[in-house]
Amino acid sequence: MQVDEQRLRFRDAMASLAAAVNIVTTAGHAGRCGITATAVCSVTDTPPSRDGMY
């Protein structure tokens, strides 16, 4: 996926957030992790990142 397309898809996804509670998940070398967040906001679209308040 090209960077510009990834940025646009991330922006579209952030604009579509309608839920009052968000489930944020990740997976890495240490394993899987997840949280529920009552508010999230976009931090940057390069790389696509968001911040959660929970």
Automatic annotation (TrEMBL):
Q: What class of enzyme is it?
A: oxidoreductase
Is-annotated flag, keyword Oxidoreductase? Answer: yes
UniProt EC number:
1.5.1.36
Instruction: Give yes or no: UniProt keyword Oxidoreductase.
Output: yes
Q: Which Gene3D superfamilies match?
A: Electron Transport, Fmn-binding Protein, Chain A
Please provide, alphabetically and separated by semicolons, the GO molecular function terms listed in this UniProt record.
flavin reductase (NADH) activity; monooxygenase activity
Q: Give UniProt keywords alphabetically.
A: Monooxygenase, Oxidoreductase
Q: Which domain of life is it from?
A: Bacteria
Recorded protein name is 4-hydroxyphenylacetate 3-monooxygenase coupling protein
Q: Which organism is it from?
A: Salmonella enterica subsp. arizonae
Supply the gene name.
hpaC_1
